[in-house]
């Protein structure tokens, strides 16, 4: 792995690795506090995703230690007035938007606790790989607070508002196997293997045409929110832009000439 770039916060590291330095590994390193997300760490995440090197084509988001993240740093939860609470939540929104709508697809490698704001963070990534030790919870209900990091939008879309409501009302905890079945993660791997699988997926993603990846990250979720006739129009516009790129033309020529190594194969 390449020498770490100077970390923007001691609680976060950014390393650039892989073929032609195409993969950015963004790692929460606040192990002693179970990667609890302080205001500083949230700002560092925002800065990291807003300033990835131009060579990056995909990113892996992971956590050091036994847990992905214990969520909001509860020690910072002090009495805020309404305005401060609003801005605090909007700060999280800005950081997690920088992940979801950033320059490259993000694969999260999950293990241990993925709870509260940690689950909101995971939900802002594009692909989630969970190992068998992963568990998901939203303890906000028992802490007397509400989600504020985009969870009511992203988590409810991932698993349904009815499941999110159950988790918050009853403190229900989902195990890794259930999490994959319900949609928290798209991949489930044996304990200790989430990072390796996430890196492998990120390397595969990095071989796609950047414009296709951009369309998937930026157009697809918006199309899914549009009325059908608007969505179809947006899809047509995005399709026209993607297929007009010189790289797309070359890839299709390669396939037709039998030169592409990307024939679809049965799983
Ligand atoms: C923390 C935090 C935290 C641990 N903020 N300090 N999140 C929660 O309600 C989850 C709270 N945390 C836990 O339930 C557990 O810590 C874990 C299941 C995640 C991990 O358990 P364990 O046994 O490995 O660790 P621990 O012994 O509980 O914690 C180790 C230390 O981390 C300890 O500090 P120490 O100084 O006594 O060593 C804990 O206090 C500290 N720690 N979690 C601050 N969250 C945008 S709104 C989002 C709203 C939310 O995220 S609410 C949910 C918050």
Spell out the blueprint of helices and strands.
Elements: E1 12-17, E2 23-28, H1 39-50, E3 58-63, H2 82-100, E4 106-110, E5 113-115, H3 117-123, E6 127-131, E7 135-137, H4 140-143, H5 151-159, H6 161-170, E8 174-175, H7 176-182, E9 187-189, H8 194-205, H9 210-225, H10 228-244, H11 246-256
Parallel strand pairs: 2-3, 3-4, 4-6, 5-7, 6-9
Antiparallel strand pairs: 1-2, 7-8
Helix pairs in contact: 1-2, 3-5, 5-6, 9-10
The protein binds 3-methylmercaptopropionate-CoA (MMPA-CoA).
3-methylmercaptopropionate-CoA (MMPA-CoA) (1HE) binds next to strand 5 and helix 4.
Structure characterization notes:
- With 267 residues, the protein is α/β, with parallel strands linked by helices.
- It has 2 domains: 202 residues, 2-enoyl-CoA Hydratase, Chain A, domain 1 (Alpha-Beta Complex), CATH 3.90.226.10; 47 residues, Lyase 2-enoyl-coa Hydratase, Chain  A, domain 2.
- The protein is 46% helix and 15% strand.
- The protein contains 11 helices and 9 strands.
- The strands form 2 sheets. The protein has a 6-stranded mixed β-sheet, with helices on both faces. Strands 5-7-8 form a 3-stranded mixed β-sheet.
- Helix 2 links the parallel strand 3 and strand 4.
- The longest helix has 19 residues.
- The chain is globular and about 65 Å long.
- The two termini are 30 Å apart.
- The N terminus is likely disordered.
- 3-methylmercaptopropionate-CoA (MMPA-CoA) binds next to strand 5 and helix 4.
